[in-house]
Design brief:
The protein has 252 residues and is an alpha/beta fold. The protein has one domain (2-60, 96-106, 136-251): 3-Layer(aba) Sandwich (Rossmann fold). It is 38% helix and 17% strand. It has helices spanning 13-26, 42-46, 61-68, 88-91, 117-131, 150-153, 167-182, 198-207, 221-228, 240-251; strands at residues 2-6, 31-35, 94-96, 99-103, 136-140, 158-163, 188-195, 212-218. Strands 3-4-2-5-1-6-7-8 form an eight-stranded mixed beta sheet, with helices on both faces. Helix 8 (198-207) links the parallel strand 7 (188-195) and strand 8. The longest helix is centred in the C-terminal third of the chain and has 16 residues, at 167-182. The protein is globular. The model has no long low-confidence stretch (mean pLDDT 91).
């Protein structure tokens, strides 16, 4: 199963992805976790030791040069458009129990996007992970779905969009739905997060009535404290763990 998690910054997208990954791990599943959001740190949220020392793949200049034949940061030159990537998930991932985690990193884009060695390598890597690898994959995406293309979108089993009660979060979910539709990704479901009461839940249902909701996660100070103190949300007492387990049962 290939799952992609997206949503507006600050809605708890990475917290949800981490809870999902750790729940799968505890259930005995082998998980390939992909941190595709340059503004997040999925490794720390999962609870991997030395998370802050993990070098993003986009910053591995020697490896990118070796695989593409061009220096990262160069635009318009000649380089391989299909670099070898099939060995990278095993050789460049950080490991914890049944979890392998890869941090993709960000690509500095020019005015019209980036046709550059590092961008090409990352897209080829995501394509390989989604299309060719026979394992359970959870991808923590950016607020959009920039790492997915038409080839990979059809192989993603579900795009999970995390939303919170708020107009900007609703706008982002609608934007993601439009982007997903443009590349043929139609299996979209929502996760309501930071729910304080029934009114919050009804607000989301009414304003996003075209979507399927897989579940709702209550607002919990314990999750906020975990983030502030550098703990994994899975390692604190919270109802969110049971709520994510219920969402996972629907997915599996």
């Amino acid at each position: 199963m290939k799952l992609a998690v997206s949503g507006k910054g600050g809605v708890g997208k990475t917290t949800f992805a981490a809870l999902l990954i750790r729940t799968l791990n505890d259930q005995g599943h082998h998980v390939l976790a992909i941190d595709a959001d340059p503004d997040a740190n999925l490794a720390a949220a999962v609870g991997i030791d030395g998370a802050e020392k993990i070098v993003p793949i986009a910053e591995m200049k020697e490896m990118i040069f070796e695989r593409t034949g061009a220096q990262p940061g160069t635009i318009g030159g000649f380089f391989k458009l299909n670099p070898k990537v099939d060995d990278l998930p095993d050789s460049l991932s950080s490991k914890m129990d049944n979890i392998k985690l890869m941090r993709l990193g960000g690509v500095k884009k020019g005015g019209g996007g980036c046709i550059c060695p590092e961008s090409t390598l990352l897209k080829m890597l995501v394509t390989h992970i989604v299309l060719a690898r026979n394992e359970l994959v959870v991808m923590d995406m950016e607020a959009g779905i920039e790492h997915l293309g038409r080839a990979t979108a059809s192989a993603v089993d579900k795009l999970l969009v995390v939303v919170e009660p708020g107009r900007r979060s609703i706008d982002t979910a609608t934007h993601i739905q439009r982007l997903a539709g443009e590349i043929g990704l139609k299996n979209i479901a929502l996760i309501g997060n930071k729910i304080r009461n029934q009114k919050d839940e009804e607000f989301l249902k009414q304003n996003l009535s075209d979507f399927q909701f897989l579940g709702f996660i209550a607002y919990d100070d314990a999750l906020v404290e975990a983030d502030l103190n550098g703990f994994s949300p899975y390692d604190v007492q919270s109802m969110a763990k049971d709520e994510v387990a219920g969402i996972l049962r629907k997915l599996l």
